[in-house]
Amino acid sequence: MRLFTCLLASLVLTGCLFWELMPSYSSYWDEDIWIHKNTKQPLSRDIDMDCFNKSLEGFEIKNISGLPSVVGEDNRAKSEKIYASCLRRKGFIFNASYKYCYKFRKVCELYNEYRK
Which domain of life is it from (predicted)? Predict the structure, then answer.
């Protein structure tokens, strides 16, 4: 029984360690985070940029590593809501898997309300 318990504990720890040591999310997993709810097509670059630009309108912006970012925590949260709402109006839903959400908890917490 003791051997079984040790073996089970080591398997559980190895499984957790496997998830922790996996590299950051990449195209290796080939997952579309936003898909169209009717056609199941992935989010296009044009629609993504259109909603992203709309989410920046009216906010103070600073340049971080060549990318525009909204200044202030509250304003950033409002900007993210505008972005997600824009995608939703265009027919897209948040479609991230559990393995994506394991690595990027904050993103999933932010967009989970935009699932189906």
Answer: Bacteria
Q: Do residues 82 and 75 lie in contact, with contact meaning Cβ atoms separated by under 8 Å? A: no
Q: Tell whether 108 is covered by a domain.
A: yes
Percentages of the chain per state (helix, strand, coil), in multiples of 5:
60, 15, 30
Coil/strand/helix, residue 95 = coil
- Its domain, for residue 70, covers 26-114
Q: Does 81 reside within a domain?
A: yes
In this prediction the pTM is 0.71
- 66 in a domain, yes or no? yes
Report, as an integer, the average pLDDT of 76-95: 93
Q: What are phi and psi of 107, to 5 degrees?
A: -65, -45
